[in-house]
Design the sequence.
């Protein structure tokens, strides 16, 4: 019997929970430093880490917020977050299992929300952003960080193909324009956007999601046969390592 997408996400990331807690790509980065500086300035009372994964956003928010809620669809991922928060002595982090598009929180219950490398797994992108707006009080700040799709259809197609082969729970990397449009529809205003590049070391990128050998071979084959425009844009290296486009958007709940 086939699984629902939600069950697939929970299963795949539950099995690799500790890999994401320990992942250098997820645990470090200038974007985390900038996010911590923002939280330190705002000092929220109730902060939400939406799609928390390994919990790295929750850990950086905890010293600056009165309370932090780490929300994720995977119970096993949340278990890893609880264990790591305890080891760090962060007693103000609570965990709640939920999908982004159906969170069990009251309207306007949070005064800050951060979401990092999660939205490309949502089965309902617009619905997740609407929920993010619903649980934020008016005037509160939200910060979203994710890989985004290049505007050119050729590059977009290769990106989505590689992502899906690597991880069957992948839905879609949205373009920057799609992000901005969806945020506006959801009720967010005054976006500040910045972009940067992030190198993916091929072997660890595959290992994090336990990508099977057949799919890994298919990815390598796609890379090897990619046209020059694709190889150049993604800076594909001899060992398969490459670079992704990442965006960070800070918005206000209108």
Sequence:
């Amino acid at each position: 019997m086939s699984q629902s997408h939600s069950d697939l996400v929970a299963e795949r990331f539950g099995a690799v929970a500790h890999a994401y807690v320990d992942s250098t790509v997820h645990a470090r980065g200038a974007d985390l430093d900038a996010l911590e500086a923002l939280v330190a300035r705002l000092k929220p009372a109730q902060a939400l880490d939406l799609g928390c994964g390994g919990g790295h956003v929750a850990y950086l928010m905890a010293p600056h917020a009165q309370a932090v809620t780490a929300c994720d669809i995977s119970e096993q991922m949340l278990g890893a977050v609880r264990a790591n928060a305890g080891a760090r002595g962060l007693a103000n982090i609570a965990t709640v299992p939920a999908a982004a598009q159906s969170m069990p929180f009251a309207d306007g219950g949070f005064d800050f929300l951060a979401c990092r490398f999660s939205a490309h797994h949502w089965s309902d992108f617009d619905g997740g952003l609407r929920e993010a707006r619903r649980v934020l009080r008016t005037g509160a700040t939200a910060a979203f960080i994710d890989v985004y799709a290049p505007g050119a259809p050729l590059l977009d197609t290769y990106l989505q193909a590689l992502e899906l082969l690597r991880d069957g729970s992948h839905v879609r990397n949205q373009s920057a324009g799609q992000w901005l449009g969806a945020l506006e529809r959801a009720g967010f205003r005054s976006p500040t956007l910045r972009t940067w590049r992030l190198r993916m070391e091929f072997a660890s990128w595959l290992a994090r999601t336990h990508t099977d050998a057949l799919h890994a071979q298919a990815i390598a084959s796609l890379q090897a046969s990619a046209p020059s425009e694709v190889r150049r844009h993604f800076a594909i290296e001899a060992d398969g390592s490459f670079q992704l486009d990442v965006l960070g958007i800070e918005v206000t709940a209108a």
